[in-house]
Design brief:
The complex is a heterodimer. By secondary structure, chain A is an alpha+beta fold. Among the domains of chain A are: 245 residues, no CATH class; 189 residues, Multidrug efflux transporter AcrB transmembrane domain (Multidrug efflux transporter AcrB transmembrane fold). In chain A, a hairpin with a 2-residue loop joins β3 and β4. In chain A, the strands form 3 sheets. A 5-stranded antiparallel β-sheet of chain A has the order 3-4-5-2-6, with helices on both faces. In chain A, strands 8, 9, 10, 11 and 12 form a 5-stranded antiparallel β-sheet that branches. The mean pLDDT of chain A is 86. Helices cover 65% and strands 8% of the residues of chain A. Chain B is of the alpha+beta class. Helix content of chain B is 21%, strand content 44%. Chain B contains 4 helices and 11 strands, in the order αββββββααββαβββ. The chains are: A alpha+beta, B alpha+beta. At the A-B interface, α2, α3, α4, α5 and α6 of A face α1, β2, β3, α2 and α4 of B.
């Protein structure tokens, strides 16, 4: 009866604790964004202003949703027809294109109505200096210039509006509009550029798949219209889809292979289904509890936490194997299993929790989350072993200790035989590692973690080459107490850029909307000119122009609004421009960028921003890289500190000599892994650091389990061996991945776990001393 | 950035017209003519008349000079263009900042080379034989150019030998150019 009550109590405690945690998490869950995929959110919150976050989102959205499609051929009319067919196919597939025609009409009307306010500083100075004479000359030039063949003199007598419009930025200067297309002649081939957007996020599965389908449809449309035309497409959604497919292909065969291998191993060793079910229960419960704890703390969970945290929880399988090995092949009765494994398991759990708890001090949301995730997950895994395993594994197993079960113990015992090789071999290996350490390089560039298909990269380079414009390396944020100040600062920035980076083409709101001060100056210049009608008539007459034309211009001035163009009017005409304006708590910030024919030096742009008050130059990619760098460095130091504390714990329980001995194998494995990575020219990145934490954790568990169980017991050696083999199957297989991030992680894990396992006997004293 | 690019595209349409900058029509045979430009403005009884000289050749490029009632000179050779203003000052024109240069190049060199294929991409081209020569009517396809221009009529004595260009603007204005090969006296149309 007491046993049954105890069983109910154990189940109740476990379910109640897990249920309460999940319920609390459900209440705290940010339903809008349960999983946060923004890596920049991993930055400390105080460094990410609201404006910067919005700017990052807008800049990213514009980039990841756009597709660029180039249709080219030698026969211009046929190529144009093919491009139009592709355009129709893209729209029919659900992609969007800008309605540039309507925007054009609206903008033209707004600029036409305010053209007296749109003189630039140079033109204003010219009118101020030359007065009526300058105007008469400009009108004469406008009449005389062949430019008059392409514009309406009556709508723009002095050519000032045409000048203003001509100075406006263009995304691809070499390409000019042709209906819904942009077109240019390159190397004897007529190129038509189509720019379309994916409605959903280009990185989402739906968005990327839609983009791929649309591109296929467009390619088919081109082939049907023009067999000799070339079709090329690029854009983030296409890369995202290709990367996703490759990742799915790889993860499918890798996970199937590792799962089958692990299941075969467990089945072969234990000859029972129970270990499968219990290990799965432990893993599911620990991931669930870990995720719930993170959500309770933060409201949502970072994608980095989910990936790295779940990986680190792989350590928890050690506890299950320790229990299984003792239950199936230990010397004690089933009821005594928990008592026998408890010291090793609790010590392993304690040191694991301490190692991860130090990451709580990181100050980075990403590391704090990983710490919360890992600590909770380990505790839950321990709880499952302590509360649930003894309830289910009650009857004595009937599996005899077979050869596979015996050799791990034999290996450990062999490794503990007194021999000078116990010291010489590790020393020799460490010596060999020294050149590797010296060759070791770090990398935090997120681009090096991805595997991008060569074909897509080649097409992308070709299209960019044809367009003649490279994507900007970042964007500017111009902050001001109001729009006027922000515009003025942006104008000052663009002037600085003109001097320091002449090849850069600035794109920003101030190029569409002159500052109020400039517009007022423009109006004042006109006012002075028309304030002296006699002088104006004389100037016209002197140039042989009809005096009536002067009167006509003056009448236009009198009829005009003579007010600056307001931002609201511009945004009514072109609503999309409003996305360049980001309201802030202290005023407003303007989003701007630059394009160029060649690569722009980010340092030059940064210097230009630094020399202008209120301007910030932001490089999203560099910020991600910096985030990874800081996480990597800080995690490394915190793990070092954590291991000093673990050393203190081992010191307390086992004494100085044994504590040093127990830490030696994991540290040796760490050294060997780093040396091997150096020899193989594999860079040290954040994925490798996570692998190193995993290696240290496993190595530490191996030391504790063996030390607590000794060489005379079969179960610790078996648990350590099974753990090492399953880890190699789970993570070591990733070394064959074509995705650099996974490859780096898998390679480090493969080397590290092998080294941890092979050096595990070193955590025990030589057999002679143990028996003594 | 989408907003920015959308606006850029729209304004690019405005600024550039519908003629492609990188299009390089065949260079016509050397051509030189005097011309009279007559511009009629809506609501303006008296047309504005100016006189000038046009010359095109492979080495010196395109030269457009107004000689009366004031002096103005426009020269374009390849991507380089400059103009001399009535007050005598000279300014260089940046093709990046003056997309109309490409339009002018397209229309003039296209017409003078007799190459109507390039023009067909942007205009409905209708050719009508005359007793001597032909009349080409260019109607802008729907797009930016059609916002400013209703049609352009070119009368040629022979392919690549324009006699008269007549441009009708949407505002009601009209621009007529009458060419007389150098040596003859031009008269107002």
């Amino acid at each position: 009866m007491n046993t049954r009550l105890a069983s109910v109590a154990r189940c109740t405690i476990w379910l109640a604790s897990l249920g309460a945690l999940c319920a609390f998490a459900w209440l705290r869950l940010d339903v809008q964004q349960p999983i946060n995929t923004d890596i920049l959110a991993a930055l400390p919150a105080q460094q990410e202003s609201g404006a910067l976050r919005v700017a990052n989102e807008r800049s990213r959205d514009a980039f990841i949703n756009e597709l660029l499609i180039l249709v080219s051929g030698t026969d211009a009319p046929v190529t144009r027809e093919a491009a139009l067919a592709a355009y129709t196919a893209l729209l029919n597939s659900g992609l969007h294109a800008e309605n540039s025609g309507r925007t054009l009409q609206q903008l033209l009307a707004v600029y036409q109505a305010h053209h007296f306010a749109l003189l630039d500083a140079k033109q204003t100075a010219r009118l101020n200096r030359g007065g009526a004479q300058a105007l008469a000359t400009d009108v004469a030039v406008s009449l005389a210039s062949p430019a008059g063949l392409t514009s309406s003199f009556d709508a723009d007598p002095g050519g000032y509006l045409t000048g203003f419009l001509s100075r406006l930025p263009r995304p691809y200067p070499a390409f000019l509009p042709d209906g819904p297309l942009l077109t240019a002649l390159r190397a004897g081939r007529r190129n038509y550029l189509l720019r379309v957007q994916v409605g959903a996020s280009g990185f989402s599965q739906a968005g990327a798949a839609l983009a791929v389908r649309a591109v296929h449809a467009a390619r088919d449309a081109v082939r049907q219209t023009c067999r000799t035309c070339e079709f090329q497409a690029t854009g983030a959604p296409l890369f995202a889809e290709a990367a996703r497919r490759e990742a799915q292909r790889e993860s499918l065969w890798l996970s199937v292979s590792s799962t089958v291998l692990i299941m075969l191993l467990i089945a072969w060793v234990f000859r029972s289904l129970a270990p499968h079910l219990l290990a799965a229960l432990q893993l599911a419960a620990s991931v669930l509890a870990a995720s719930a704890a993170v959500i309770v703390w933060f409201g949502s969970i970072q994608i980095l936490t989910l990936v790295f945290g779940t990986t680190l929880l792989g350590i928890a399988i050690d506890y299950a194997f320790l229990y299984f090995a003792e239950y199936w092949f230990g010397e004690g009765a089933p009821a005594a299993v928990w008592r026998r494994v408890r010291p090793g398991l609790l010590m392993g759990l304690l040191t694991g929790v301490v190692a991860f708890a130090f990451l709580l001090l990181a100050g980075f949301p990403a590391l704090t989350q990983i710490a919360v995730f890992s600590v909770t997950g380990l505790l839950e895994a321990g709880l499952v072993v302590a509360l649930i395993f003894p309830l289910t594994l009650t009857r004595a197993p009937r599996v005899a200790a077979h050869a596979t079960v015996r050799w791990p113990q034999q290996f450990i015992q062999a490794g503990c035989r007194p021999s000078r090789w116990r010291y010489a071999l590790p020393a020799l290996v460490l010596l060999l590692c020294i050149p590797g350490w010296l060759r070791l390089q770090t990398s935090d560039d997120v681009r090096e973690l991805q595997h991008l298909p060569a074909g897509l990269l080649h097409t992308d380079a070709e299209i960019r080459n044809t367009l003649g414009e490279l994507p900007p390396p970042g964007f500017f944020l111009s902050a001001g107490s109001d729009l006027e100040q922000a515009l003025a600062r942006e104008q000052a920035l663009f002037a600085t850029l003109g001097a320091r980076a002449p090849s850069a083409t600035p794109l920003g709101l101030s190029r569409f909307l002159p500052s109020d001060a400039q517009q007022q100056a423009s109006l004042a210049a006109w006012s002075r000119v028309f304030g002296a009608p006699l002088a104006l008539q004389t100037a016209f007459r002197n140039l042989g122009l009809p005096v009536a034309l002067a009167a006509r211009l003056e009448a236009q001035w009198q009829r005009a609004a003579r007010r600056p163009l307001a931002a609201a009017q511009l945004f009514t005409a072109a609503p999309d421009l409003q996305r360049l304006v980001i309201p802030t708590s202290s005023g407003v910030a303007l989003l701007a960028t630059v394009t160029s024919h060649g690569q722009l030096n980010p340092a030059t742009l940064e210097q230009a921003a630094a020399s202008t008050p209120g301007i910030e130059f932001v490089q999203p990619l560099a910020r991600v890289t910096e985030t990874f760098h800081r996480i990597r460095v800080r995690a490394t130091w915190l793990v070092v500190i954590g291991y000093l504390v673990i050393f203190a714990l081992l010191l307390w329980r086992y004494g100085r000599r044994e504590a040093l001995r127990m830490l030696f194998p994991p540290l040796l494995a760490l050294g060997i892994t780093l040396g091997a990575l150096g020899w193989l020219r594999e860079p040290l990145n954040i994925f490798v650091v996570v692998a190193l934490i995993l290696i240290l954790g496993l190595g530490r568990d191996y030391s504790v389990f063996l030390r607590e169980g000794g060489t005379r017991q079969r179960s610790p050696a078996l648990a350590v061996t099974l753990s090492a083999i399953t880890m190699l199957f789970s993570f070591g297989l990733l070394a064959v991945s074509r995705i650099p991030a996974l490859h780096a992680f898998g390679l480090a894990t493969l080397i590290g776990i092998l080294a941890s396992y092979l050096s595990a006997p070193l955590s025990l004293p030589p057999a002679r001393r143990e028996s003594a | 950035m989408t907003a920015l690019r959308a606006a850029c595209t729209a304004l690019c349409l405005l600024a550039a017209g519908a003629v492609h900058a990188a299009t390089t029509p065949r260079v016509p045979a050397a051509f030189s003519a005097r011309f009279v430009e007559t511009r009629s403005l809506p609501g303006f009884d008296t047309p504005l008349i100016s006189h000038g000289v046009l010359s095109v050749d492979a080495t010196r490029g395109f030269r457009w000079e107004i000689t009366a009632p004031y002096h103005y000179l426009f020269e374009m050779n390849g991507a380089q263009a400059r103009e001399q203003l009535p007050d005598g000052s000279v300014r260089q024109l940046d093709p990046e900042q003056a997309p109309w240069l490409a339009a002018v190049e397209q229309i003039f060199l296209g017409a003078l080379s007799g190459n109507t294929v390039q023009l067909q991409r942007y205009f409905e081209v209708h050719m009508q034989p005359l007793a001597q020569g032909r009349q080409i009517t260019l109607t802008p396809r729907p797009g930016p150019l059609s916002q400013a221009i209703v049609r352009i009529q070119v009368v040629e004595s022979a392919p690549g030998r324009p006699e008269q260009i007549d441009i009708r603007e949407t505002s009601g204005g009209r621009l007529q150019l009458r060419f007389t090969p150098t040596g003859a006296s031009p008269t107002a149309p």
